[in-house]
Write a structure and sequence with these properties.
Oligomer: single chain
Strand order of the largest sheet: 3-4-5
Largest sheet: 3 strands, antiparallel
Radius of gyration: 13 Å
Structural class: alpha+beta
Amino acid sequence: MENIPLAKLVLKTAETEFENETGLFNMLQWGVQKPCGTAACLAGHTLLQHGGYELAGPHVFRRTADGQYFAQSAISWEAQRLLGMSREERKSGGHDIFYNFSNELALDTFRTLIAESEVTEE
């Protein structure tokens, strides 16, 4: 994974939301507006933390620079691109990191992927 700073920001945000039980980190939501903020999975949080993307509707993001829309699975492909993540890294741990329905397992897998990417970078 090439964009480790973005990955760490996404991880920190997701961990904070999960630990505080806000419901704003939820692997079952691509992106949904809630009264307290935007609930999103790792892919949705990647777009939000990267900047230049906004929630355009339930499970739809819009890139503000060119107006391109990303819905559902396209959100995960855009997140993969922004993170500089290979197909192999995306499937690390024996499953697709963006299609993991367990918040805990998704966070654990993402932490491991970041740690492995940092070692590789050295």
